[in-house]
Amino acid sequence: MTDNKPWDVVVVGAGPAGLTAALYLARYHRRVLVVHDGKSRALRIPLTHNAPGFPEGINGADFVRRMTDHATHFGAEIREAHITDIRRQEEGFALSVADAADLVARTVILATGIFLNQVDLPEDVHEQAIKDDVLRYCPICDAYEHTDAHIGVLGCDSNGAAEALFLRRYSDRITLMPLSHPELTASQKAQLDQAGIKVMTGALVELSPRNDRIDVVLEGSQTLGFDVVYPALGCSPRAELGTALGLAVTESGCLPSQCVTASPIAGLWAAGDVVEGLDQISIAMGHGALSATKAHNWLREQDGETLT
Ligand SMILES: Cc1cc2nc3c(=O)[nH]c(=O)nc-3n(C[C@H](O)[C@H](O)[C@H](O)COP(=O)(O)OP(=O)(O)OC[C@H]3O[C@@H](n4cnc5c(N)ncnc54)[C@H](O)[C@@H]3O)c2cc1C
């Protein structure tokens, strides 16, 4: 069963990337549908301080609601559903939707984001710790608010070491701790020592978030208390719809950055965190605007509406 009339564009994802793309496309008078499964990372932001135009900060769910209202105001349609598969067909693409009819689209923008690799805590405890500002995953987003704080970094490999060094500019009380065992080279260890970053060796036994601090128990040592802990555990990009169409992913599992403006698949673009690069709202919005404009002009070209 299919939802018969092809959409000009189906955007998969209703985060900052997908909603910006939808806004632009609606204002290009395109028939645009956004499909999302309710998992935008932006919804989890308690208060972002680096979204331009909001010096007092804005809550992520409010921000997504504003972007949703803005896109629908100009005519974008938004549906909540999970896209399980995508395939090429003569007139563009067919998208399989869990528990609903297939969708047909002339073009598609994948704005599907990433999943964070998280520490092992019950979901409600984990989300409360984020709200309480004792557990954070993004130093670029939040380190400013932790200036001079006592900061723990979890993950004693080159990722963790790089994150600890990044945070060192904000505080001289940084401790790097392994999830299981340290994997640092001698030169990385020397660099951390020189920067005054404390490196622990015992594996993580327990994390206990409280409302104003977080305790970390490591094997063979006492409990350490921090104002905030940053796990540096990487992420899992939601790139599976791209790979289903044959796109190759980068070393980190993202879609290549060329997919924002010129993917190897005609009629397909990608935007936001799922694309290799800096995982930030402002970048996602920029990708959204770019990919939408590329899709619109490609359709104009197909329909003989451009200067020859
Ligand atoms: C706690 C936290 C704090 C953060 N703080 C900041 C900050 O202060 N500043 C900042 O710039 N960034 C911050 N970020 C990062 C920011 O949230 C992301 O960079 C931004 O959300 C990326 O936008 P996106 O549209 O690419 O992806 P997302 O917002 O993650 O949206 C992805 C969308 O794709 C949908 N989707 C994926 N696969 C499917 C599928 N198969 N079917 C249907 N739907 C699908 C999801 O449901 C979702 O709607 C933070 C993130 C977190 C978790």
- What class, by secondary structure content? alpha/beta
Given this structure, which CATH class of the largest domain is correct?
A: Alpha Beta
Counting structural domains, the number is 2
Based on the coordinates given, report the CATH architecture of the largest domain.
3-Layer(bba) Sandwich
**Major β-sheet, in short?**
7 strands, mixed
SS element count, helices: 8
- Helix content bin: 25-40%
What small ligands are held by the chains?
flavin-adenine dinucleotide
Please state the average pLDDT score.
Answer: 96
Radius of gyration: 22 Å
**Poorly predicted regions:** none
Which characteristics define this entry?
single chain, 308 residues, alpha/beta, FAD/NAD(P)-binding domain, 2 domains, 7-stranded mixed β-sheet, 4-stranded parallel β-sheet, 16 strands, 28% helix, 27% strand, binds flavin-adenine dinucleotide
Can you characterise this structure?
This protein is of the alpha/beta class and 308 residues long. It folds into 2 domains: 183 residues, FAD/NAD(P)-binding domain; 114 residues, FAD/NAD(P)-binding domain (3-Layer(bba) Sandwich). Helix content is 28%, strand content 27%. Strand 9, helix 6 and strand 10 form a beta-alpha-beta unit. The protein is elongated and about 70 Å long. The site of flavin-adenine dinucleotide (FAD) has 36 residues, from helix 1, strand 2 and helix 8.
